[in-house]
Amino acid sequence: MRALAAKASGTTRKTHLRHGAPEPLFGVRIGDMKPIAKQIKGDQELAMRLYATGNSDAMYLAGLVADGRQMTRAQVQRWAQDATWHMISGTTVPWVAAEHPEGMDMALEWIDSPKELMAVAGWGTLCNLIITTPDEELPVKRLDALLKRVVKTLKSSPNLVRYAMNNFVICCGTYMAPLADKAVETARKLGKVEVDMGDTACQVPEAESCILKSRRGAPIAPKRKTTRC
Question: For the chain, what are the domain ranges?
């Protein structure tokens, strides 16, 4: 925690607060966090303790270090429940959940949650699984049904969930060969997705153009080993 505090940036802190981060936090740039993560990589117990502090920077660092395969389902569930804002529920939690053997089951459970951040974690976990898991190991029919669900329910879904659902469409179109064309059709049906991004310069990606750009001229983008960044 002292190492994180020493890397605090007033500008980063203000940016995170503007994006919805609650106290406590130091305001550490992710690039400045990486050397710390490298030093403690593999220390699962420390990662769990960092997340439990409730400090936004420590929670993000925990996600860079933790191995979801070493966590129990109850521990992953606790991380999802304790996520303090969308940066944690949309990145840190999905990183470890997607590594867990029951990650898909948890994701499908979370997307039905009435709690906005929990649903965001669910859609984020689905995205992580799609990006890193071979297509033959994914429940294609179930994910196909979720594309239909997005078309029907996105506009009536909570603000941050709309953003996460849009990302799900992008991931299906970019990384899943069986659903590539279906995802593009879904993106066209959705059109411009409206999300209140608050007092920030952030914009909602236009799904179809993002899919095509991410493919870089190929029928589909190659799977990735990890989504951590």
Answer: 1-66, 72-229
**Buried-exposed string 179-214: b where 16+ CB fall within 10 A, e elsewhere:** bbebbbebbeebeebebeeeeeeeebbbbbebbeeb
Whether residue 199 is predicted with pLDDT greater than 90 in this model: the reply is no
Residues 6+ apart with CB under 8 A from 218: none
Length of the chain as a residue count: 229
Report the predicted TM-score, pTM, of the whole model to 2 decimal places.
0.96
Q: Which helix (H) or strand (E) is 74 found in, with range? A: helix 73-82
- Give the CA count within 13 Å in the CB-facing half-sphere of 126: 30
Cα–Cα distance, 136 to 200 (Å, whole number): 39
Residue 195, phi then psi, degrees to nearest 5 = -135, 130
